[in-house]
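The step that takes the researchers longest sounds almost clerical: writing a folded protein down as plain text. The outcome of that step, for a single protein, is printed below.
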Amino acid sequence: MSKERARRRAEREAEAARLATVRAEREAEEARRRERRRRLTELLPRPVRPVRYARQTGIRARRRRTQNAGVVVLFLLVQAAAWLYFPSWTARFAVLVLTILLLPVFVTLAFDRRG
């Protein structure tokens, strides 16, 4: 009986040693792969990331964002009304040009933005 247990224990130990060897080979291959990748990425130029500006906070910034959103909505409403009301392309184009030209005047008068 003890010979049988010793044989089974030897088999278990041999299997554990084989699994440990396989695991060590896999980890060594993974380490070599990581090292190759690190050396290769060091050779490549780093991509230039665009500079991101932090969004302005505070009451004035929020008010300005709200006003800008209102101006955009008003512009789109005028354009939609022109498309619905005028069937001719020339009239639609004229409304577009006039809206673009008069938009800064409206913003200056409505929101007192003089500079």
In short: The two ends are 99 Å apart (CA to CA).
